[in-house]
User: Which sequence fits this backbone?
């Protein structure tokens, strides 16, 4: 019989992020699929009571917490110590946690410490004959596997956005058993000094957006008149982002041009890059422009449901079964028109 | 005086991303079809770690760089033909599987042992570098486990920048969600860094560096220790390619305005 721990770090205001509620939903379904095995909640952070109360009605039999100033920031040494204490105290055989940057940093190390194993980027989980399994992708989203493990504890990090969130009743109170943990001095060698975020109006990466808008190197290439039109490309793209609230992605070729000193779109960085060596975001829709749709790029589209592309090349990768619709057209002209129509709508 | 470091870069080999990959059932679990025939490259994010290490060594006299790599001997040799021209390093090859289906904890055990076997490695100067995720397993698990095995509890993942300050401390910039970065300050080595892209372009091939590396690289390859990876209780029910191609509707000879209308209808649905 498995013992399940749902593990999460609380936000600075003591709440739980949506990704944590998604992982909780997955943990509850797994507990049910495992014949109703017991579920423990483990929370770590500066404070955990608000979060524990939010999910008091989730059916967990125990709530454990590691709290304090030392555990507020996303530092490996303290996060790993707190998570290790929660895993040990719960005697969990299976741990389900959200695959946030914070927990992805520390939980593989916790698996090592506790003699267990870790799987990250899990996109589905379940059980057969009382044995849990998970789905995850290999070779950068090129093939999907279903895996099982016999070694315990098995730490499972669930990909944010892949599961429906638990949205059970609020207004309850949870009794949290606090675990005393004195952080050794050696674990304070690193301190988190802050977060760097682009100014709100310069933030082009919007994980919650309905649409991913991808720009390719074509935006900087010579056009029919023999000239490149980078300034106009910038203006068209920024206007579209402003009006559509889409999230901006890019091909590698376009972001790399910046490093090579060519004229490029000034608001792009490697963080926007989609693909093999970039991100694999989740959005319901994606629109690619001036991008050739080569495999190392399109593997980053694995979790984009509906896909359309605008390219001058009718034989580009998108035409070969990678997009639902390919518009063989000049993206400058189409996006100019699109902006005009969007402006008229508001 | 500037501090000198011992930088150990862990980097695996992966199939060239332009190749089509197909899973097949092998005797010891899943494998790639024609794996032995596929051209391989240095794992891209780990390659960035190597470039960052080389850059650090250039700016800090006395700094040494080792490259620890687990892969089939023949593939290691093939990939090193180009990698050796990119940056000066001492090669620590481990002859074994570079498969994405190999167990991360077993790979970590092999890498940690390889690192511990480096003669003269000074822990008080030790910076362990690697990619934050591989292009094979894509898990971000291996490096963290290597760090734990080496007793390193200052670990950073998704690193885009490492700045060493005059007092020997460093400022580390790591990727967070939504295009944000976290900035941390760490008092000093030992520490572990799983690199994302960083800011350095891929160095041009330098045949001179290649020649110097080759002198130690080939003998090291010849002596490479064979490593057997444990399965550690991992089993695969299925490994499949995703649902195949979409039916692409190709729209030609339509005005920009017509297409724009169709796109707006679609995105506002
Ligand atoms: C190790 C490795 C890792 C890689 N990782 C990634 C990755 O993570 N992400 C990634 O994206 N790539 C990656 N690549 C690169 C990838 O193979 C392609 O080279 C890259 O995606 C091409 O970018 P692109 O389509 O923007 O540019 P191009 O191939 O130059 O295509 C430009 C396109 O724009 C079109 N175009 C030009 N003008 C217009 C116009 N006015 N209107 C409409 N269309 C126009 C052209 O017809 C063309 O199709 C990787 C490659 C390697 C070797």
Assistant:
């Amino acid at each position: 019989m498995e013992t399940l721990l749902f593990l999460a770090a609380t936000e600075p205001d003591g709440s739980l992020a949506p990704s944590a509620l998604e992982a909780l939903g997955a943990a509850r379904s797994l507990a049910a699929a495992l014949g109703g095995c017991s579920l423990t909640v483990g929370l770590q952070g500066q404070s955990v009571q608000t979060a524990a109360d939010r999910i008091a009605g989730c059916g967990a039999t125990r709530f454990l917490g590691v709290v304090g100033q030392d555990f507020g920031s996303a530092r490996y040494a303290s996060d790993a110590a707190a998570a290790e204490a929660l895993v040990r105290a719960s005697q969990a055989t299976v741990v389900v946690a959200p695959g946030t940057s914070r927990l992805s940093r520390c939980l593989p190390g916790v698996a090592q410490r506790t003699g267990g194993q870790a799987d990250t980027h899990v996109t589905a989980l379940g059980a057969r004959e009382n044995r849990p399994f998970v789905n995850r992708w290999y070779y950068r989203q090129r093939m999907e596997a279903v895996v099982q493990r016999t070694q315990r504890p098995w730490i499972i990090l669930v990909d944010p956005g892949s599961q429906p969130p638990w949205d059970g009743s609020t207004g309850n109170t949870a009794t949290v058993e606090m675990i005393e943990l004195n952080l050794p001095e050696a674990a304070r060698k690193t301190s988190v000094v802050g977060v760097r975020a682009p100014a709100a109006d310069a933030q082009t990466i919007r994980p919650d957006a309905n649409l991913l808008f991808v720009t390719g190197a074509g935006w900087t290439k010579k056009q029919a008149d023999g000239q490149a039109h980078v300034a106009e490309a910038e203006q068209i793209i920024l206007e579209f982002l402003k009006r559509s609230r889409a999230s901006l992605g890019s091909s590698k070729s376009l972001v790399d041009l910046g490093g090579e000193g060519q004229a490029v779109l000034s608001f792009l960085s490697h963080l926007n890059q989609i693909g093999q060596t970039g991100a694999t975001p989740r959005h319901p829709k994606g629109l690619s422009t001036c991008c050739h749709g080569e495999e190392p790029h399109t593997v980053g589209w694995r979790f984009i449901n509906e896909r359309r592309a605008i390219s001058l090349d009718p034989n580009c990768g998108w035409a070969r079964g990678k997009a639902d619709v390919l518009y063989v057209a000049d993206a400058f002209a189409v996006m100019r028109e699109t902006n005009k129509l969007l402006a008229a709508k508001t | 005086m500037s501090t000198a470091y011992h930088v150990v870069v862990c980097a695996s080999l992966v199939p060239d991303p332009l190749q089509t990959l197909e899973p097949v059932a092998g005797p010891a679990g899943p494998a790639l079809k024609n794996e032995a025939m596929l051209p391989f490259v240095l794992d891209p994010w780990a390659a960035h770690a190597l470039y960052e290490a080389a850059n650090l060594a250039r700016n800090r006299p006395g700094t040494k760089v080792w490259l620890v790599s687990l892969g089939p001997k023949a593939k290691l040799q093939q990939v090193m033909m180009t990698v050796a021209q990119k940056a000066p390093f001492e090669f620590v090859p481990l002859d074994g599987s570079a498969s994405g289906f190999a167990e991360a904890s077993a790979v970590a055990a092999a890498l940690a042992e390889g690192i511990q076997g480096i003669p003269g490695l000074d822990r008080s100067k030790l910076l362990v570098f690697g990619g934050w995720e591989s292009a094979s397993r894509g898990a971000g698990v291996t490096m963290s486990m290597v760090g734990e095995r080496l007793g390193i509890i200052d670990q950073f993942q998704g690193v885009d920048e490492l700045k060493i300050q005059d007092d020997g401390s460093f400022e580390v910039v790591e990727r967070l969600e939504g295009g944000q970065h976290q900035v941390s300050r760490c008092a000093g080595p030992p520490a572990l860094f799983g690199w994302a892209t960083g800011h350095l372009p891929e160095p041009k091939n330098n045949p001179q560096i290649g020649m110097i590396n080759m002198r130690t690289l080939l003998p090291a390859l010849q002596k490479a220790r064979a490593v057997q990876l444990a399965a550690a209780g991992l089993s695969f029910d299925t490994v499949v390619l995703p649902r195949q191609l979409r039916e692409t509707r190709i729209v030609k000879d339509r005005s920009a305005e017509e297409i724009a209308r169709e796109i707006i209808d679609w995105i506002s649905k």
Remarks:
- Chain B has a mean pLDDT of 96.
- The longest helix of chain B spans residues 44-59.
- The radius of gyration of chain B is 21 Å.
- Chain B has one domain: 6-226.
